[in-house]
Specification:
This protein has 154 residues and is α+β, with helices and mostly antiparallel strands. The protein has five helices and five strands, in the order βββααβααβα.
């Protein structure tokens, strides 16, 4: 059974999706419509996201779906290893996975396909020159998330 819940956040409305007891997606720009889904995973996700935005949580402990290609799953796993308050470049992620830095575009594509932004912290990946490169939720959101984790960064 799948269910959804809308929550408000400092980066706008988020829609949380759960199926078979796993958090499957977090959507940006969600409108507060539909019924409020119930379930322990939705409750836990809402609570943990609230704690994150309040500066009280640095690691998420949620059951996550892992739907994607093998390469995407590897990249997403590495994203979860980037500590709160730190960043990595696409090339660094490629190297950590045992690839040449030249595969950084493929890392970027996998990063952009991440269905669980914030919880799987794709916002912590920046360009090699330190710039805020593309982000599925927009660079304004990326900046807000990074500043939440690293006050005074920008």
């Amino acid at each position: 059974m799948s269910s959804t819940r809308w929550i408000d956040s400092p980066v706008g409305g988020l829609r949380l999706h759960v199926s078979a007891g796993l958090l499957t997606a977090i959507e940006f720009d969600a409108e507060p419509r539909g019924s409020r889904g119930t379930g322990t995973v939705l409750d836990a996700a809402e609570t943990q996201l609230g704690e994150y935005f309040a500066g009280e949580r640095t690691i998420f402990e949620l059951p996550l779906a892992n739907d994607g290609t093998e390469f995407q799953r590897k990249v997403w796993g590495e994203l979860r290893r980037i500590p709160f308050g730190e960043t990595a470049t696409y090339g660094e992620i490629a190297q950590r996975l045992g690839y040449q830095p030249g595969i950084s575009r493929a890392v970027g594509a996998a990063n952009g396909a991440n269905p669980l932004p914030i919880v799987v912290p794709c916002h912590r990946v920046i360009g090699a020159d330190g710039t805020l490169t593309g982000y599925a939720g927009g660079t304004d959101r990326k900046k807000i998330l990074l500043e939440l984790e690293q006050p005074g960064l920008f």
